[in-house]
């Protein structure tokens, strides 16, 4: 007798959709049976008429613990993720104090986050440049990368532009060194690509302008983070991959010109992967003008024409995964009444509607098959971040993760009801069709009909790459 059987669902893989029953035993997929087999189980769930995915992996989320728990912690962020159909998230090393840059901090971080995650999680390790205020021996963390790798981080994240003194910018010397150090381990380095010099210079010039209206300031902000900053940084880190042979991942590609650079590099045979986010696939500059502070993020949303072209690169496999880039803030940090675009927090409250928004865009707005979702939110992220073997596919022995999606379930974002700590989201009022009804991790239901299970708090496990 199985522990759990999910009956009559339409299983979605990158290649096809087929009806089958999923049997889970001891937290793992134990059998995929012809629908209607009526295998005996302690518990059964009927998924008739619904799509079934092997969970959703959010490869790019900032949960802010330790250090900035007033914005988000693992409990609040992961419960919102569970409701959104995520079964695994990969947490970023920054917007933390301290940032995750060595083994000692890894131990400190694990001591906190392991207590209350609802969903399974992997970690990005930090890749930081030179601190101004530290002795030469600890100027950056190049000597800590192998230790962090041995802690099981799924990838390393570096920032090519300013991101505050808690997470110093990497220069190309740091990038090259890190790729050299990590290459023997086949470890992946991901980068926020905006070129330091241009961002610094253009922001300085824009901020110095006097008497600007809010709308003009938004224009200035968008211009100071225009595509050339992203393009140059992306080309530079790709060149470092070319120089070293190290694996590079381009985070949150926002523009087709950048995607083309990635595509060329992949065609050349370089070890490059790249992701994009729902906000670059369904939202534009106009949205930033409309919403103001809540819609501030970098790179920023682009023009409608750019947005439409981005889909070509998702479809041809260049942008092989989609992450939420959930980067939460306290409400006052996103308040249009007190914060203009320059002073508002840069980052979006995005995780709770991650799958519903993507499903609605892919299936309803674009008329594409849900198999694309299985590709960019399951299979590819699992492969890229080394989680394949446990996550990302319906394979015997993999973790018994399941999200059941009702394609007809209508949803509407109400920011006052978000399960995240902050309650300001630029997506407030967005609506669509297609939402998770049930999220299951290793055979256990962690969220049902838009609410997480209280008893699942602390259930989430640390996932390390499968060797
Ligand atoms: Zn991010």
From TrEMBL:
Domain Amidohydrolase-related span(s) in chain numbering: 51-446
Domain of life of the native organism: Bacteria
Keyword Ribosomal protein: no
E.C. numbers: 3.5.2.5
Record-linked InterPro entries: Allantoinase, Amidohydro-rel, DHOase/Allantoinase_Hydrolase, Metal-dep_hydrolase_composite, Metal_Hydrolase
Recorded family membership: Belongs to the metallo-dependent hydrolases superfamily. Allantoinase family.
Stated name of the protein: allantoinase
Organism ancestry: Bacteria, Bacillati, Bacillota, Clostridia, Lachnospirales
């Amino acid at each position: 007798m199985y522990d759990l059987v999910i009956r009559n669902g339409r299983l979605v893989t990158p290649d096809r959709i087929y009806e089958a029953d999923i049997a889970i035993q001891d937290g793992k997929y134990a059998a995929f049976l012809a629908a209607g087999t009526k295998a005996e189980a302690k518990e059964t769930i009927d998924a008739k008429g619904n799509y079934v995915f092997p969970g959703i992996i959010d490869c790019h989320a900032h949960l802010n613990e330790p250090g900035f728990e007033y914005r988000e912690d693992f409990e609040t962020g992961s419960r919102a993720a569970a409701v959104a159909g995520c079964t695994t998230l990969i947490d970023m090393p920054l917007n933390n104090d301290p940032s995750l840059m060595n083994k000692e901090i890894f131990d400190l971080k694990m001591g906190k986050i392991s207590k209350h995650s609802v969903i399974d999680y992997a970690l990005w390790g930090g890749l930081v440049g030179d601190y101004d205020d530290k002795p030469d021996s600890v100027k950056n963390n190049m000597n800590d990368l192998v230790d962090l790798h041995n802690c099981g981080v799924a990838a390393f994240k570096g920032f090519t532009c300013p991101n505050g003194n808690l997470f110093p910018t990497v220069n190309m010397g740091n990038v090259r060194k890190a790729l050299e150090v990590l290459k023997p381990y086949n470890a992946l380095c991901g980068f926020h690509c905006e070129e330091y010099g241009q961002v610094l210079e253009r922001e300085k010039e824009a901020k110095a302008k006097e008497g600007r209206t809010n709308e003009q300031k938004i224009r200035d902000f968008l211009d100071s983070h225009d595509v050339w900053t992203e393009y140059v940084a992306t080309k530079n880190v790709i060149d470092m991959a070319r120089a070293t042979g190290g694996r590079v991942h381009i985070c949150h590609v926002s523009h087709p010109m950048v995607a083309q650079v990635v595509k060329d590099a992949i065609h050349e045979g370089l070890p490059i992967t790249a992701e994009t986010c729902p906000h670059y696939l369904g939202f534009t500059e106009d949205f930033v003008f409309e919403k103001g502070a809540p819609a501030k993020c970098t790179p920023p949303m682009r023009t409608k024409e750019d947005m439409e072209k981005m889909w070509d690169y998702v479809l041809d496999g260049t942008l092989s995964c989609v992450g939420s880039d959930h980067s939460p803030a306290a409400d006052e940090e996103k308040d249009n009444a007190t914060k203009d675009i320059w002073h508002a927090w840069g980052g979006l409250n995005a995780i709770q509607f991650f799958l519903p928004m993507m499903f609605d865009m892919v299936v309803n707005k674009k008329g594409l098959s849900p198999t694309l979702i299985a590709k960019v939110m399951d299979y590819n992220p699992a492969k890229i971040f080394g989680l394949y073997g446990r996550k990302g596919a319906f394979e015997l022995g993999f973790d018994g993760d399941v999200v059941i999606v009702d394609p007809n379930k209508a949803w509407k974002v109400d920011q006052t009801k978000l399960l995240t700590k902050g309650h300001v989201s630029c997506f407030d009022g967005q609506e669509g069709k297609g939402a998770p009804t049930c999220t299951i991790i290793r055979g256990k239901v962690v969220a049902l009909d838009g609410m997480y299970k209280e008893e699942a708090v602390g259930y989430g496990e640390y996932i390390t790459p499968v060797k």
